[in-house]
Amino acid sequence: MSTAEVIGTGKPAAAQALETVPAGAGRLVAVVVTHNRLDKLKATVARLLESPAHELAALVVADNASTDGTAEWLAAQGDPRLDICTSTENRGGAGGFEMGMRRAMEQHAADWLVVMDDDACPAPGALAAFHARPRPLDTALAAAVYFPGGQICEMNRPSVNPFWNPSVFLRTLLKARNGYHIPYTAYEAPAPMPIDLTSFVGLFLPRRMVEAAGYPDPGLFLYGDDVIYTLGLRRRGETILFDPELRFEHDCSTFQNDRHRVFRPLWKVYYAYRNGLMMYRKAAGLLFWPLLLVVLLKWRLTARRYGAGQRAAYLRLLRHAAWDGVRGRTGRSHARVLELAGED
């Protein structure tokens, strides 16, 4: 992203940030992406800045063109570690992470990045636990993510790629989601375990890995950008470990009756399906093509969940998502997606 696309200079400069004495794992910089969820953001920023500077050298907040007073609230904060970069338009979670990670790498001399949404934050002591032991710079770390009440957050449960392991593939055929996601016992295990895919909630990335792999594709906009990015790391031969000692909290709502879920607003259909196909193709290789037929049939039948007034728009979004997803195209503008959905 060019500097012309971002407004706001932020408070700390890289030279100021260098004055922080590094902790055991080196300089850690947090990246938080936000859009019109000020109440959630306030709690996340407060929790992060509770950590002393030797645990958290800087906090980059990527404000995705919020209109709810977020910019004014951020500007009023006094902690010199807080750096604000603001997009002139909402570029989705993917664009926000690309912007925020780039800012953290270029301006804050980070040894490590830790990324999260605006409704997620480290549990008390999590950053101290990160610094409590040496962290190899050839290994990314995924946190154990829980709801505030203490239950495991299912949407952030890491997984392994079933297409890379015949035994995992067979287990997935028998157990579906529980076949390829890490077992619940991993959250109480005494040691980290290797994974292939995880979310952008509590993901610790060493600088060397980001420099080699680059940034998330901002054209993905929403859904699956984290899975596609971490799967790409693994395909490059990088190592990602799930570390149960690194606990995060995610104050999000769970999917209710997921088997009959519909997308609201409707434009989300496009991103969920297009990015889903891109993710399946990266994961499955040649098996993607038979899988594609099954997936498209399932999504076509899902049209029955939408009323007559939305069904045509749903099918139109599905067609364009399939066309772009199979070709790996992420250049369609969000404005055009809204047009396809008949929304503005």
Layout of helices and strands, plus pairs?
Elements: E1 6-7, H1 14-17, E2 28-34, H2 38-50, E3 58-63, H3 70-75, E4 82-87, H4 92-107, E5 112-117, E6 120-122, H5 126-131, E7 139-146, H6 166-175, H7 177-180, E8 193-195, E9 203-206, H8 207-213, H9 225-235, E10 239-250, H10 268-284, H11 288-301, H12 308-327, H13 334-341
Parallel strand pairs: 2-3, 2-5, 3-4, 7-10
Antiparallel strand pairs: 1-4, 5-9, 6-10, 7-9, 8-10
Helix pairs in contact: 9-10, 10-11, 10-12
Description:
The structure is a single chain. By secondary structure, the protein is an alpha/beta fold. About 40% of the residues lie in helices and about 15% in strands. The protein has helices at about 15, 40-50, 70-75, 90-105, 125-130, 165-175, 175-180, 205-215, 225-235, 270-285, 290-300, 310-325, 335-340, and strands at about 5, 30-35, 60-65, 80-85, 110-115, 120, 140-145, 195, 205, 240-250. Strands 1, 2, 3, 4, 5, 6, 7, 8, 9 and 10 form a ten-stranded mixed beta sheet that branches. Helix 10 (about 270-285) packs antiparallel against helix 11. The radius of gyration is 20 Å and the shape is globular. Mean pLDDT is about 90; it is low at about 1-5, about 5-20 and about 255-260.
Cα shape: globular
Termini Cα gap: 25 Å
Main β-sheet description: 10 strands, mixed
Overall pLDDT, averaged?
91
Query: Can you count the helices?
Result: 13
Q: Helical proportion? A: 25-40%
Order of helices and strands: EHEHEHEHEEHEHHEEHHEHHHH
Structural class: alpha/beta
Instruction: Give the beta-strand count.
Output: 10
Q: List low-pLDDT spans.
A: 1-5, 7-22, 254-259
Task: State which percent range the strand residues make up.
Answer: 15-25%
Calculate Rg over CA atoms. 20 Å
